Amino acid sequence: MPETQTTPSLTPHDPSPAPAAAPSPAAAGAALAAPPPGPAAVRHVFDFAEGHREQAALLGGKGANLAEMTRLGLPVPPGFTITTAACREYLRTGAEPATLGGEVSAHLAALEERMGRRLGRGAAPLLVSVRSGAAVSMPGMMETVLNVGLTDSSVHSLAAWAGDERFAWDSYRRLIQMFGATVLGVDSGLFEERLSRARRAAHAPTDAALPAAALRDLAGEFQELVRAEGRRAFPQEPREQLDLAVRAVFDSWQGERARLYRRQERIPDDLGTAVTVCAMVFGNLGPDSGTGVAFTRDPATGQRGIYGDYLQNAQGEDVVAGVRNTVPLSELARLDPASHAELRRITAVLENHYRDLCDVEFTIERGRLWMLQTRVGKRTAAAAFRIACQLLDEGLIDEREALRRVTGGQLARLLFPRFDEEAAPAPLARGIGASPGAAVGAAVFDSATAAQWAEAGRAVILVRRETSPDDLGGMLAARGILTSRGGKTSHAAVVARGMGTPCVCGAEALEVDAANRRLTTAGGGVVREGEVISVDGGTGRVYRGEVPVVPSEVMEYFERAGQAAGAGSAGRAAASRAPQAAAPGAGAGAGAGAGAGELVAAVHRLMGIADRVRRLDVRANADTAQDAARARRFGARGIGLARTEHMFLGERRPLVERLILAETEAERREVLRELLPLQRADFTGLFEAMDGLPVTVRLLDPPLHEFLPDLTDLSVRVALRGAREAGHAGSAGEGAGAGDAGGAGDAAGRADARLLAAVRRLHEQNPMLGLRGVRLGLVVPGLFAMQVRAVAEAAADRALAGGTPLPEIMIPLVGTVRELELVRAEAEETVAGVARARGLALRIPIGTMIELPRAALTAGRVATAADFFSFGTNDLTQTVWGFSRDDVEAGFFATYLEKGVFQVSPFETIDVEGVGALVETAARAGRAARGDLKLGVCGEHGGDPDSVRFFHRVGLDYVSCSPFRVPVARLEAGRAAAGA
Ligand code: PEP
Ligand code: MG
C-alpha cells in the first residue's frame, strides 16, 4: 500500500511568503545545483531535479518518479534522494559510505536555502519526510518517518508558524511515535495503547478529535516511553534525527516483512533501497487541507477515469491505516473543485507521459495541491489485459508494448474458477471487490493463526478489520482476505492484488471482533473462527459456507476458441483466428460479471498478437487422447511429450508383472505380444487427437519396480501368509475342505513369493539413478521394440484411414551417443519392418531427451544419432544439482529459500546459471553438429513464464507443457519475441 505522507505547506499561513519559501512548481522543477561530489567520488545523493524515471535502479522507483514529475514541472515539494548504492554499501559493511554525511549536509543546506527555512530551527522550521523506495515497488514493506526536524523547541515555532497549536502537537507526537517504532524499535502497540487511553480520557471518537492539550501530553508520554523502551532519549538534534531515520530505512530492507515480500515477489535480496528526503507539506492543517491517493484508471477493472480516496484534514498514514474512512475523489470535486481539477489535469499528464495506469499520492495544503509520489500502478490481472488493449486503442502503445504489459502469471490467474452465483446463498455482506478470484476457507481472525492453520493444511480466509504490514505472513498463508474497513487503496487491497489473492475489503456491514474471534453481520448473525466462508474478490460478496465454483470465463473462452478452430485446423494461424469465431464477449455469459466481455475480448486480442509474433512453438505434455484434445483446444501445436509409463498402469499392471516375472524368452514374448495392441490403441488415440501435428512418444522411462507392489507391503503379505499357513498346518485335518483352501492359498503364496523375489532383485537404493530410461531398453529385450512397433503400426493405421499422423520417437535418459545408436538401430529396423508389411513409407524421426549432464556436455556427438533433442529439465535439474526431485522440495527448500540460496525453486523456474547454461551449451553444440536439429523442452519449465522467455533467448524451437499451461506459454513466447 502506498506510503503517503501528510505534508506540505511550505508557508501555510503567510499571505506574502518570501519567494524562496514557497517555490512554484516550475521553480521546484528547476534544477538545484548539486553540490560538487568531490574528485572521483561516487555520488550517493541526487536532488529531485537531477534524475529521471529510468533511474529506478539507482534512485528507487519513488526517487526516480519524483525526479520525473519534477522534470515535468508538476508540483513536487523539493527534496533529494540517497541512492540504493549507498544502502548496499551500508548493508555490506555495516557503515554508511564515508562521504554520505557530507553529501547529505550539502543537499540539506541547498534545500534549506531554497526553502528559506532551516531543518528544525528558526521561526518557520523546515520538516522533512524520510521514505524508503526500492527499485521495485514494495508497498508498505519498509519504513517511513515523517515530520523529521520537530523537537521540544521547534514544535512551538511550528505552532506559531501554522497558527495551529493542535496541528503542531499532533505532528510531534506522530514523529516520536514513528521514530520510536521505526528507528528505536519500540513496540508500536505501546504507542497505540497510550493513544487509545488518551482518546478515552478525552471522549474523542478518533485521533482527529483529540485536542491540542491531549496531544501535547501524549508527546510527553511518548518521549518517556522511548526513553524506557528505546534505551535512549528521543533526539533533540534535527540532523541526528535525519541521520538515524535514514539508517533505519536502510535497515528496513532487511526487516522480516520486506524479506518475506521479496521472496514472494521474487525480488532479489541485494538491490537495497533508496531513501527520499522531502520537504514536508501538511494535509492536516484544517478543512482546506487533506491527503489522498488516486489511480488514473480503476486498478481492479481497468475502467477509464480517475479513481481514488481522499481524507480531509489528515496525514497520509491515516488513509492507509484506515483509521478514518476516506471519501471517494468525486467528493473532493465538491469540497475543493480547483484542487480536483488540478489533480485531473496532472493525472492526465502523467498517464500520457507514462503511457500507462499511474497511481499518485497527493496532499492538499490549504488549498494547494502537491504531488508526493507516482508510479506505474499495480493492477489486477483482468485490468492488465483490459488496460493494455485500451492503451493500444488510444494509440499510446503499439502491439508489442501491449504484449509486454501483461504476463503469463496474470493470464494463469484469469484461468482460475469463479463462484457459481446461481448456486450461492444470499450474501452475508457485500464489500469492495479489491482483488478478484473465488476463495473458500475457514474464517480466521489473526495472522498468526492463519499461518499456523495453513501450515497444517487448512484453507483459511483471513478476516481483519483492516490489515497492516504486520499481517503479511497471514495474508500470504490465506486463500482469501476479508476486511471490514478500507477501500481499494487500503493495505489489504494493494497487497492482495500484488499477490493475486482474492480480497474483499470495506465490508462495513460486518463487525469484526478479533478479540473474541468472530464477526457479526448486519442482521445479527455470527460467524466464529473456523467456520467456512466464501469470498468473491470480483463482486465483493461474502457468503457463509462453501459456494460451488465454475470455470472462469477466460477458461471457457479457450475451450470455445479451440472448438471453433475445428479438429483439423489447429496451428498458429488457427489459434489466433479461432477466437473470432468464438465471438469474444459472447463468452461473458450470464453472471460472468460486468466487464467479462471486454476482458475476454482483450485476452483474445493479445493472444492473437502473441501467436503472430512468437517464434517458439508451443506443444503439450499429454498422454491421453482427452488431454491431447484439450491441449489442442488451448492452442498446442502438437505433443512434445507423451509419457508411456501411464499406459502400463491400471488394468495392464498384471501384464507388466508377468513381463517382469517371465522366466523364458517365449513367456516374455507372449506378454509383449499382448501389450502391443493395447499400446497401439493408445497411440492411435493420440495421433487422431493431434492429427496433422507432431506427437513425440517417449519410450518407457521409470524403473520397472514402479510397476510392482511395494517391497514392504509385499514382504508383510508374504510373512503373514506364511504365519497363517503355519497355523493351518497345525490344525490340518480338523475340518473338511481345509485342504482345498490350502491349495488355492499355496498357488497365491507361490506367486507372491516369486513377486517378492523379483521386487528384491529389482530393488535399488537410488532408483532415479538406476535401471530406467534407455538402460531399460538395452537390458529388457523386446520392450522398446514393442513400443516402437506400436507407434509405427498406429501411424500406419491412421495414414491408411486418411489421417496425417506425425509421430516422433524419443529415447529417455541417454548419457552417451552409444546408447542412442543401439536403440536407434533397433527402432529403425522395426519401423522399416512395419512400413514393408503395410506397404507404405513411414518416416518417424528419432530423437533423445537431454536430461543428464553428460548428454548435454557431449551433445555434439549425441546429435549425430538424433533428429531432435528435447530437454528434460526436471531430470536435468535433479542431476545438475544432485537434488532428489521427489524429496527436496518438501524437505529443505523452505530453508534454502529462507536463506536466499535461491529466490525460487529450480524445479519451478529454470536455474539459468547452472541448468540453463547446460541447455544453452547443448543446444549450440547440437546445432553445430547438425544444422537441422530440432530443439525443444518438455520439463515442467516449459510452462513457466520466466523459463519460457529463457528458452526463447537460447533459440529453442518449442516448449512443451501441461495442457492448462499452454495459453500461458503461448503468451510468454509472444512476450519473449516482443522483447519482454
Ligand atoms: C524431465 O525429466 O524433464 C522429463 C520431462 O521427464 P520426466 O519428468 O518424465 O522424468
Ligand atoms: Mg525425465
From TrEMBL:
Q: Which residues form the PEP-utilising enzyme mobile domain?
A: 460-540
Q: Which Pfam families match?
A: PEP-utilizers, PEP-utilizers_C, PPDK_N
* Transcription keyword on record: no
User: Locate the Pyruvate phosphate dikinase AMP/ATP-binding domain: which residues?
Assistant: 57-93, 102-325, 335-384
Q: What keywords appear on the UniProt entry?
A: ATP-binding, Kinase, Magnesium, Metal-binding, Nucleotide-binding, Pyruvate, Transferase
Question: Residue limits of the PEP-utilising enzyme C-terminal domain?
Answer: 603-973
Compositional bias, Low complexity, is annotated for 23-33
Q: Extract one GO molecular function annotation from the record.
A: ATP binding
Which prosthetic group or cofactor does it need? Mg(2+)
Q: Name the residues that bind Mg(2+).
A: E851, D875
Q: Where is this region: Disordered?
A: 1-36
Broad EC category = transferase
Which InterPro entries does this UniProt record tie to the protein?
ATP_grasp_subdomain_1 (IPR013815), PEP-util_enz_mobile_dom (IPR008279), PEP_util_AS (IPR018274), PEP_util_C (IPR000121), Phosphohistidine_dom_sf (IPR036637), PPDK_AMP/ATP-bd (IPR002192), Pyruvate_phosphate_dikinase (IPR010121), Pyrv/PenolPyrv_kinase-like_dom (IPR015813)
Q: What is its EC number?
A: 2.7.9.1
Indicate whether ATP-binding appears among the record's keywords: yes
Q: From what superkingdom does this record's organism come? A: Bacteria
> What positions does the entry give for substrate binding?
R643, R698, E851, G872, T873, N874, D875
Which portions of the chain have biased composition (kind: Polar residues)?
1-10
PROSITE patterns for the chain: PEP_ENZYMES_PHOS_SITE (PS00370)
Which family does this protein fall into? Belongs to the PEP-utilizing enzyme family.
- This one is known as Pyruvate, phosphate dikinase
